[in-house]
Write a structure and sequence with these properties.
2 domains, Cytochrome Bc1 Complex, Chain D, domain 2, about 200 residues, binds heme C, 10 helices
Length: about 200
């Protein structure tokens, strides 16, 4: 299935015709996702769509539900995704997740220059302000509804951060998103998001 999917995707990319088997609606759905999220779901900065490879089952469902229900809204990127989420039948979630899991898992590529002092500051800031919910190494915590952060691209981590600070993400919902927004808005001046992004994306 993995290779079939990739071959189909390559032919789609090369010829802009989707050669999916007629009855394989699931692959059609995945192609629809990859148009924005990148041909291997590795993230696509040109439209602000994050990497989806490695996404947790429960977080994928929660995120899609938040877009569909209109609680994750209010900033431009969310509106693009809201339209996409509303076009995906709920019954196809599990299949989309399975197909995503068949794509190769890649580490996000950090575009920032890694500076040892910044990396150290990021490690400390992360341990002090983020690890209690997102896990000691950014692996996520389902009980707290806090997703893993290691799969995410540096530009998306920054954009997501901005969406809590100024975009209204979490402002009008009583779920995990509002907790996250409260955390982001209450941090002291010693907190440096650039350093934390370096810590989360640098390969050591
Ligand atoms: C029109 C472009 C577009 C399409 C098509 C699209 N997405 Fe997205 N998606 C985005 C953008 C842009 C974001 C970032 C939105 C934000 O910052 O809240 C996003 C975010 C997401 C997120 C949230 C990830 C996170 O880490 O919070 C999930 C999950 C997701 N998309 C899944 C899908 C799936 C599954 C499909 C196919 C059914 C799909 N997307 C199709 C543009 C798209
Ligand atoms: C009180 C628990 C808690 C703490 C502390 C916390 N987070 Fe979160 N975080 C969450 C939850 C819950 C979500 C999911 C919210 C949502 O769905 O929008 C989240 C989501 C995020 C996202 C969006 C991920 C995505 O895929 O879109 C980023 C980025 C993030 N957190 C970064 C951080 C950073 C950096 C810190 C440290 C300053 C931090 N968080 C501290 C609970 C927390």
């Amino acid at each position: 299935m993995k290779y079939t999917a990739l071959i189909l995707l390559c032919s789609w990319l090369g010829h802009t015709t989707v050669q999916a088997a007629e009855n394989d609606n699931v692959l059609d759905e995945l192609v629809f996702c990859l148009v924005c999220h990148g041909y291997q779901a590795q993230g696509n900065p040109s439209v602000g769509a994050p990497a989806l490879v490695g996404i947790e089952d429960w977080y994928l469902r929660a995120a899609l539900a938040a877009y569909r229900g209109g609680t994750r809204a209010g900033y431009a990127a969310a509106m693009d995704m809201q339209a996409a989420a509303r076009m995906l039948p709920e019954d196809d979630f599990a299949k989309v997740l399975r197909l995503l899991n068949e794509l190769p898992l890649r580490e996000p590529q950090a575009a920032v220059v890694v500076d040892a002092a910044l990396l150290e500051k990021g490690r400390e800031n992360y341990a002090q302000f983020c690890a209690s919910c997102h896990g000691a190494d950014g692996e996520g915590n389902q009980i707290l509804a806090a997703p893993g952060l290691r799969r995410l691209n540096d530009w998306y981590l920054q954009a997501a951060w901005e969406s809590y600070l100024t975009g209204g993400r979490g402002n009008d919902s009583a779920d995990g998103a509002s907790q996250m927004a409260q955390v982001a808005l209450a941090l002291p001046d010693s907190f440096d998001i650039d350093a934390v992004v370096v810590f989360l994306t640098a390969s050591e």
